[in-house]
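Cross-check.
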Amino acid sequence: MTLKTCKKCGEKKDPAEFYRHKLTVDKLNPWCKECCRADCRRWRKENPDKKRAASKRWGDNNRARCRKNHREWCRKNPQRIRADNARRRARMLGAPGFCTPEQLSDLIAYYNERCYLCGAPYEVIDHVIPLSRGGTNWPSNLRPACNYCNNKKHASLPSESGITSAALAGLRACAVGV
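Predicted model, tokenized:
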């Protein structure tokens, strides 16, 4: 097996560690992938305006591909979307607190991906003390809930809404036709 020497770092590496480059004799970039990546990171840090403009141009020229990639990412990351939406809504209402996607995943796992009120599969994230009533966006105020319970509770506290696990079980059964 032949090794190639990187012109940037001087290390001898396997040819697979180099990007292809059609204008060179050996058809490989003179710098290894690691050096190329480091140089790209440095350039992006030094030229944020140029990078932003280049990204915008690429997005404008590849609109359909951007939409497809975004839809695919959203499909693969539903919990991140929920966390981002909850954080955005809380920020717009001026609520204190922050919940990371990891904290939200842990919270959902704690409740076994079930509604904290009735035990049905969760669909949304509920603020126990509603944001409209001064609630926070800290993980301690967030719970997984089904749409039915979340809509029934609306902007009230669980104790004020009349929702109890036993009472709700009968309502839920009627609502879903069980």
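The chain has two domains: 17-72, 78-176. The CA atoms of residues 118 and 166 lie 8 Å apart. Passed to J.P. for a second look.
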